[in-house]
Amino acid sequence: MDKIFYTYRIPDEGMLLLKNYEISGNNEDRFLSKEEIIKGARDASALISLLSDRIDSEVISSLPKLKVIANYAVGYNNIDIEEAKRRKIRVTNTPGALTDATADLTMALLLATSRKIVEGDRLVREHKFEGWKPGLLKGPALKGKILGIIGMGRIGKAVASRAKAFGMNILYHNRKPLLQSEEEELCVKHVSLEELLKSSDFISLHVPLMGETYHLLNEKRLSLLKPEAIIINTSRGAVIDEKALIKALKDGKIAGAGLDVYEEEPFVPQELIDLPNVVLLPHLGSATNEARREMAIMVGRNVAAVLEGKEPPNPVI
Ligand code: DGY
Prior knowledge:
This protein is of the alpha/beta class. The chain has 13 helices and twelve strands.
């Protein structure tokens, strides 16, 4: 019988779909080391992984029976896709399940940074609220401002439709522009990356992390931003050069940032933590009950399909 190994327990809705297989894994609230993954999954045909697990060539080549790696995430930059391809191992992900959750969190960060929600909360808790004052924690309104969306896939589009409802004017940059009908429906305009960076009041990133998007926002590109610009990142940390971002924030070259992701998670540089003009979250983009449940169901279906010799519903490769 095919064996399944999970590096971290996923919601029951997904596990239930796999109840007819021999399934084992880590039931503790901690990440497994590489050695533990290799040991636990040695005889497994399917590996259920988190984006926090590095499934590199060493792990993949140590698992001779592996047929599928089902990542409990839409992103799969934690997996050595080339190595999996070479070994004819399928890799699956969970597209769509977390689109709304991530778009909602992006809006939350847009509001939290512009309206200084975290600073306000801190001020009240520190008993520093002295009464209503005309200038207390003022920030820019979203209505009428330009939002630049980099990456117009599922999540980028979901952010655009929310931002439209807030009265924002939306520019976007994507490798491939949308159809005119889609642009009209979302009220978005395709521009070059340079124009987007120069014109936007808010910039939100929605690209996957890969070779061509690594440090997409580097020092040179960050220098194009307006001093009042606020950057929101709910995609992957390494899409922005974190050191260059810290410098731009420290030097007042940009106004602020709302970050859900970091270059070397879970490490968050102290310099970032010390900055007053940033809102920092611990990678919560997909953290709704609904999204996490749906992601688990997708993982269950993907694993079951491959083990039954069928095409998985969400193949990466
Ligand atoms: C993903 O799925 O890639 C998100 O970053 C976390 O759910």
